Description:
By secondary structure, the chain is α+β, with helices and mostly antiparallel strands. It is 70% helix and 10% strand. It has helices spanning 4-17, 29-37, 40-61, 99-165, 171-205, 225-237, 240-261, 295-362, 368-402; strands at 66-77, 81-93, 268-276, 281-289. Residues 1-21 have low confidence and may be disordered.
Amino acid sequence: xxxxxxxxxxxxxxxxxxxxxxxxxxxxxxxxxxxxxxxxxxxxxxxxxxxxxxxxxxxxxxxxxxxxxxxxxxxxxxxxxxxxxxxxxxxxxxxxxxxxxxxxxxxxxxxxxxxxxxxxxxxxxxxxxxxxxxxxxxxxxxxxxxxxxxxxxxxxxxxxxxxxxxxxxxxxxxxxxxxxxxxxxxxxxxxxxxxxxxxxxxxxxxxxxxxxxxxxxxxxxxxxxxxxxxxxxxxxxxxxxxxxxxxxxxxxxxxxxxxxxxxxxxxxxxxxxxxxxxxxxxxxxxxxxxxxxxxxxxxxxxxxxxxxxxxxxxxxxxxxxxxxxxxxxxxxxxxxxxxxxxxxxxxxxxxxxxxxxxxxxxxxxxxxxxxxxxxxxxxxxxxxxxxxxxxxxxxxxxxxxxxxxxxxxx
Length: 410
């Protein structure tokens, strides 16, 4: 038997070894991270970051290669004989001052943009996962609600049939109870199918996510108004979409500056060696070439300047879009939570009505048709409450993801 003091020493170690439990109603964060890493769009974005880094190294190196040219001739001269002659040149273009610095800047900004776009892709994948997750939980909760009336109506039909056997109920009551039971079974079958379909979509989109066999219960949405406002502000502060657009704009601005410098073409420098008359005459020297650009280079520079202005406008537009997302997320979370509160209040009132109607039916004061109508209205109230609770949690989850408070800690 383990002694208490030994148990006290072991419990902290078990707590450290145990994996972090998931938040109520949400999948485990470690499992979500694995699922997002395996998402094809996220993998493609990571590869684009690698491509951007390779492109940056290429820009920093030089756009110019070494060029080797040469020739060999066999010359015959009367009365002198035959001679082997050759010449060779080694040349390379040289970037004019400022161009290398701008090439490095362009590469740095493009890597920054690619990294932020990769993070934003992961962000979008998290939103997709949350959407499918709450679709499944919502459909499963509705399926559970739709299953309850089946058992209730089966018991009610059995009670009516017993009363008919005793001559205390009409055949019409049995027909009404059987019709209500049939409709309830149809709804239960449909909602169960919707839940299976939602789970299939979730596991198909995110096969690496460990999805439990049974959907967890949808928790009560509890978040203070101040916390909602704080998360809304973080949506803009932590936006990778804005950061990517601004990095892209900086890269295009640097490209425009590079295009302006490219109005003057890069010269080429090299060395030349030659041998003539079979080696009787040899030499070595420097060679230089300088292309003269025309209107084409000026037009390219003007194009780059216009593209830089467009990129700056797109960066401002990205900020507007994220600000709209921030405000919309906050507004949606607020009204979804309030809608759920009203649905909960309505359900409580409807349950009180149902209790009185059942008691009245037992006393013979309420007809079966009226009771069945109240049962249906109560079922609708349960469905409305579950749907409102799921929509509220869905809105809160979206706000938390957009603010990087959930699953996307940088």
